[in-house]
Write a structure and sequence with these properties.
This protein is α/β, with parallel strands linked by helices and about 260 residues long. It folds into two domains: about 90 residues; about 130 residues, TIM Barrel, CATH 3.20.20. The chain is about 45% helix and about 15% strand. The protein is built from nine helices and eight strands. It has an eight-stranded parallel β-barrel with strand order 1-2-3-4-5-6-7-8, surrounded by six helices. α3 packs parallel to α4, α6 crosses α7 and α8 runs parallel beside α9. The longest helix has 17 residues.
Amino acid sequence: MLIIGERLSIISKKVREALIKKDKEPIKQIAIEQWNFGAQMIEANIGPAEDRGKELMEWVVTTIQESVPLPVSLDTTNPAAMEAGLKIHNNQWGKPLINSTSLDPERFIMFELAVKYSVPIIALTVGKGGLPRDAEERVEIAVQLMEKAVEYGISLEDIYLDPLVLQISGSQNQAKEVLKAVRLFHELNDPPMKTIVGLSNLSNGCPKHLRPVLNKYFFALLMYEGLSAAIVNPAEVIEVVKTINVITGKTLYAHSYLEI
């Protein structure tokens, strides 16, 4: 299970202010906290970044990798900013990850960048008609994304299929469809396709005290279905990961397994 720390997002007021002011300390602090809780990659979400996006992405990637020995997941819809991040990224600790592409033709440039820099990419199962209705439609979109990736010369092993987690407060039935989609995605190829979710999307709009509860239990179900990676708050899920790994025999049980 690849744990990608989600907390360095422009959606956060603290992060947004740090990005605007080019204040490294909050960025470093959050990166280190996530690393300490078990993150194996750090998400750098700068949004559309239409104004000075290249400079901003270079700065945040450099700042993260000055503080933790981890690769970075680059999240922006700005292709120039994405490429700037790919260029500046220190691959000593692993390749960066492109987040993301879809069936929107304007996003196909992300496939081109994945090929150019030989890096993995997230393929979001959003079709030309909008949000998927069920697991089967997610699979149909996933197949089209796989075909498009092959056209660009991308290995299927470098693709993370994202079934698109929606808010449970407004689309409760979609949670089950996401679980089913993760299971079905694995059947699309041999070896199985990699899968990823943005976990906290599930609890967006829910009361603050409920959010970690919803996230943790959904994450456990996703792990059971074979999820490969997740963009999450590591502090919320690290106990889930360690416990399920013990129950499923992936790690050896010890009374202190949560401390290891």
